Amino acid sequence: GAVVSQHPSWVICKSGTSVKIECRSLDFQATTMFWYRQFPKQSLMLMATSNEGSKATYEQGVEKDKFLINHASLTLSTLTVTSAHPEDSSFYICSATLAGGPSGELFFGEGSRLTVL
Amino acid sequence: GQQLNQSPQSMFIQEGEDVSMNCTSSSIFNTWLWYKQDPGEGPVLLIALYKAGELTSNGRLTAQFGITRKDSFLNISASIPSDVGIYFCAGQHSGNTPLVFGKGTRLSVIA
Predict the structure, then answer these.
(1) Which of B1, B33, B43 sits opposite A104 (nearest CB)?
(2) Which residues lie closer than 8 Å to A45 by C-beta, 6 or more apart?
(3) pLDDT tens digits for B61-102?
Protein backbone atom coordinates (compact mmCIF):
# COMPACT_ATOMS: atom_id res chain seq x y z
CA GLY A 1 0.00 0.00 0.00
CA ALA A 2 0.86 3.67 -0.23
CA VAL A 3 3.35 4.81 2.41
CA VAL A 4 3.70 8.33 3.75
CA SER A 5 6.62 9.11 6.02
CA GLN A 6 7.16 12.10 8.27
CA HIS A 7 10.32 13.38 9.83
CA PRO A 8 11.06 14.09 12.57
CA SER A 9 8.69 12.00 14.68
CA TRP A 10 9.15 14.37 17.56
CA VAL A 11 10.98 17.59 18.17
CA ILE A 12 11.54 19.84 21.14
CA CYS A 13 12.58 23.41 20.51
CA LYS A 14 12.97 26.70 22.29
CA SER A 15 10.41 29.43 21.90
CA GLY A 16 11.25 31.70 18.99
CA THR A 17 13.00 29.10 16.86
CA SER A 18 11.73 27.63 13.61
CA VAL A 19 11.04 23.97 13.02
CA LYS A 20 10.73 22.15 9.71
CA ILE A 21 8.70 18.96 9.31
CA GLU A 22 9.03 16.84 6.19
CA CYS A 23 6.36 14.68 4.63
CA ARG A 24 7.32 12.20 1.94
CA SER A 25 5.31 9.81 -0.17
CA LEU A 26 7.66 6.85 -0.40
CA ASP A 27 6.21 4.69 -3.14
CA PHE A 28 3.86 6.96 -5.04
CA GLN A 29 3.52 10.44 -6.41
CA ALA A 30 1.29 12.81 -4.51
CA THR A 31 0.09 15.89 -6.34
CA THR A 32 -1.85 16.94 -3.28
CA MET A 33 -0.85 16.71 0.34
CA PHE A 34 -2.77 17.87 3.38
CA TRP A 35 -1.45 19.08 6.71
CA TYR A 36 -3.47 18.47 9.85
CA ARG A 37 -3.01 19.48 13.45
CA GLN A 38 -4.25 17.45 16.38
CA PHE A 39 -4.42 18.54 20.00
CA PRO A 40 -4.58 15.92 22.77
CA LYS A 41 -7.80 13.94 22.79
CA GLN A 42 -9.16 15.92 19.88
CA SER A 43 -9.84 15.28 16.24
CA LEU A 44 -7.72 16.21 13.25
CA MET A 45 -8.12 19.78 12.09
CA LEU A 46 -7.09 20.65 8.55
CA MET A 47 -4.49 23.39 8.38
CA ALA A 48 -3.75 23.61 4.68
CA THR A 49 -3.86 21.89 1.32
CA SER A 50 -0.54 21.66 -0.45
CA ASN A 51 -0.39 21.27 -4.23
CA GLU A 52 2.85 20.47 -6.01
CA GLY A 53 4.32 23.50 -7.71
CA SER A 54 1.81 26.02 -6.38
CA LYS A 55 1.01 27.94 -3.24
CA ALA A 56 -0.72 26.15 -0.43
CA THR A 57 -4.33 26.86 0.40
CA TYR A 58 -4.77 27.63 4.08
CA GLU A 59 -7.86 27.07 6.18
CA GLN A 60 -9.49 30.00 7.89
CA GLY A 61 -7.65 30.98 11.03
CA VAL A 62 -4.33 29.40 10.03
CA GLU A 63 -1.55 31.95 9.64
CA LYS A 64 0.25 31.31 6.37
CA ASP A 65 3.27 33.34 7.44
CA LYS A 66 3.63 31.27 10.56
CA PHE A 67 3.06 27.86 9.01
CA LEU A 68 5.07 27.88 5.79
CA ILE A 69 4.27 25.04 3.43
CA ASN A 70 6.38 24.07 0.46
CA HIS A 71 5.50 21.31 -1.99
CA ALA A 72 8.46 21.37 -4.32
CA SER A 73 8.16 17.85 -5.72
CA LEU A 74 5.59 15.13 -6.18
CA THR A 75 6.97 13.23 -3.23
CA LEU A 76 7.85 15.91 -0.69
CA SER A 77 5.98 18.59 1.21
CA THR A 78 7.42 20.53 4.13
CA LEU A 79 5.78 22.43 6.95
CA THR A 80 7.88 25.05 8.73
CA VAL A 81 6.62 26.45 11.99
CA THR A 82 8.27 29.84 12.21
CA SER A 83 9.04 31.58 15.48
CA ALA A 84 7.42 28.78 17.40
CA HIS A 85 5.67 29.46 20.70
CA PRO A 86 4.38 27.06 23.37
CA GLU A 87 0.84 27.30 21.98
CA ASP A 88 2.15 25.79 18.73
CA SER A 89 2.94 22.58 20.58
CA SER A 90 0.83 19.92 18.92
CA PHE A 91 0.80 16.76 16.86
CA TYR A 92 1.19 17.59 13.18
CA ILE A 93 0.14 14.99 10.64
CA CYS A 94 0.46 15.07 6.88
CA SER A 95 -1.49 13.02 4.40
CA ALA A 96 -1.45 12.41 0.69
CA THR A 97 -3.75 11.12 -1.98
CA LEU A 98 -2.63 8.60 -4.53
CA ALA A 99 -2.72 10.25 -7.95
CA GLY A 100 -5.33 8.39 -9.97
CA GLY A 101 -6.36 6.38 -6.96
CA PRO A 102 -9.81 6.11 -5.42
CA SER A 103 -11.20 9.47 -4.42
CA GLY A 104 -10.94 10.25 -0.74
CA GLU A 105 -8.40 7.64 0.25
CA LEU A 106 -5.90 9.62 2.24
CA PHE A 107 -2.75 7.96 3.50
CA PHE A 108 -1.34 9.50 6.63
CA GLY A 109 2.18 9.92 7.90
CA GLU A 110 3.18 8.80 11.37
CA GLY A 111 2.82 12.31 12.73
CA SER A 112 5.31 14.73 14.24
CA ARG A 113 4.97 15.82 17.84
CA LEU A 114 6.21 19.35 18.40
CA THR A 115 6.93 20.62 21.89
CA VAL A 116 7.90 24.25 22.25
CA LEU A 117 9.49 25.19 25.55
CA GLY B 1 -14.57 24.10 10.45
CA GLN B 2 -17.21 21.54 9.69
CA GLN B 3 -17.14 18.31 11.65
CA LEU B 4 -19.08 15.12 11.60
CA ASN B 5 -21.11 14.05 14.62
CA GLN B 6 -19.54 10.86 15.86
CA SER B 7 -20.80 8.75 18.73
CA PRO B 8 -20.16 7.44 21.21
CA GLN B 9 -17.17 9.48 22.36
CA SER B 10 -15.76 6.54 24.25
CA MET B 11 -16.53 2.90 24.92
CA PHE B 12 -15.33 0.35 27.45
CA ILE B 13 -16.10 -3.21 26.42
CA GLN B 14 -15.15 -6.73 27.36
CA GLU B 15 -12.95 -8.72 25.03
CA GLY B 16 -15.11 -10.73 22.66
CA GLU B 17 -17.96 -8.25 22.58
CA ASP B 18 -19.19 -6.58 19.43
CA VAL B 19 -18.85 -2.81 19.01
CA SER B 20 -20.83 -0.31 17.01
CA MET B 21 -20.16 3.36 16.39
CA ASN B 22 -21.68 5.84 13.98
CA CYS B 23 -21.36 9.21 12.35
CA THR B 24 -23.90 11.64 11.02
CA SER B 25 -23.69 14.81 9.03
CA SER B 26 -26.00 17.56 7.93
CA SER B 27 -24.46 17.53 4.47
CA ILE B 28 -24.00 14.89 1.80
CA PHE B 29 -20.64 13.24 1.24
CA ASN B 30 -19.48 11.39 -1.86
CA THR B 31 -17.01 9.28 0.06
CA TRP B 32 -17.00 8.05 3.62
CA LEU B 33 -13.99 6.54 5.35
CA TRP B 34 -13.18 4.99 8.68
CA TYR B 35 -9.72 5.34 10.23
CA LYS B 36 -8.06 3.99 13.36
CA GLN B 37 -5.41 5.93 15.23
CA ASP B 38 -3.07 4.40 17.80
CA PRO B 39 -1.44 6.69 20.38
CA GLY B 40 1.32 8.82 18.91
CA GLU B 41 0.74 7.64 15.38
CA GLY B 42 -1.07 8.77 12.28
CA PRO B 43 -4.49 7.40 11.33
CA VAL B 44 -4.64 4.19 9.34
CA LEU B 45 -7.39 3.62 6.79
CA LEU B 46 -9.75 0.78 7.69
CA ILE B 47 -12.61 0.97 5.23
CA ALA B 48 -13.60 3.29 2.37
CA LEU B 49 -17.19 3.64 1.18
CA TYR B 50 -18.20 5.17 -2.15
CA LYS B 51 -21.80 4.25 -2.88
CA ALA B 52 -24.96 5.05 -0.96
CA GLY B 53 -26.08 1.95 0.87
CA GLU B 54 -22.73 0.24 0.36
CA LEU B 55 -21.85 -2.37 2.96
CA THR B 56 -18.19 -3.30 3.14
CA SER B 57 -16.26 -5.67 5.36
CA ASN B 58 -12.61 -5.86 6.29
CA GLY B 59 -12.02 -8.86 8.49
CA ARG B 60 -13.95 -8.32 11.71
CA LEU B 61 -14.88 -4.79 10.65
CA THR B 62 -18.03 -3.91 8.76
CA ALA B 63 -19.09 -0.45 7.66
CA GLN B 64 -22.07 0.89 5.78
CA PHE B 65 -22.67 4.12 3.90
CA GLY B 66 -26.15 5.46 4.60
CA ILE B 67 -28.69 5.69 1.82
CA THR B 68 -28.92 9.46 2.25
CA ARG B 69 -25.11 9.78 2.15
CA LYS B 70 -25.28 11.62 5.45
CA ASP B 71 -24.37 8.84 7.84
CA SER B 72 -22.32 5.73 8.33
CA PHE B 73 -21.71 3.09 10.97
CA LEU B 74 -18.75 0.89 11.81
CA ASN B 75 -19.12 -2.44 13.55
CA ILE B 76 -16.33 -4.47 15.08
CA SER B 77 -17.15 -8.06 15.91
CA ALA B 78 -15.54 -10.18 18.59
CA SER B 79 -13.27 -7.42 19.87
CA ILE B 80 -9.69 -8.17 20.88
CA PRO B 81 -7.19 -6.11 22.91
CA SER B 82 -5.44 -4.76 19.81
CA ASP B 83 -8.67 -3.08 18.75
CA VAL B 84 -7.94 -0.44 21.38
CA GLY B 85 -7.50 2.98 19.86
CA ILE B 86 -9.39 5.95 18.50
CA TYR B 87 -11.66 5.43 15.54
CA PHE B 88 -12.44 8.36 13.27
CA CYS B 89 -15.04 8.67 10.58
CA ALA B 90 -14.23 11.03 7.73
CA GLY B 91 -16.19 12.36 4.81
CA GLN B 92 -15.20 13.86 1.51
CA HIS B 93 -17.51 16.00 -0.57
CA SER B 94 -15.84 15.57 -3.94
CA GLY B 95 -12.64 15.02 -5.87
CA ASN B 96 -9.48 16.07 -4.09
CA THR B 97 -11.22 18.14 -1.43
CA PRO B 98 -9.93 17.63 2.12
CA LEU B 99 -11.50 15.13 4.46
CA VAL B 100 -13.79 16.30 7.25
CA PHE B 101 -13.29 14.28 10.41
CA GLY B 102 -15.53 13.22 13.26
CA LYS B 103 -14.34 13.79 16.82
CA GLY B 104 -13.44 10.16 17.25
CA THR B 105 -14.56 7.22 19.35
CA ARG B 106 -12.04 6.05 21.93
CA LEU B 107 -12.31 2.29 22.34
CA SER B 108 -10.99 0.43 25.36
CA VAL B 109 -11.10 -3.36 25.49
CA ILE B 110 -10.97 -5.10 28.85
CA ALA B 111 -9.41 -8.53 28.71
Answers:
(1) B33
(2) A36, A37, A38, A59, B1, B101
(3) 999 999 999 999 999 999 999 999 999 999 988 767 788 899
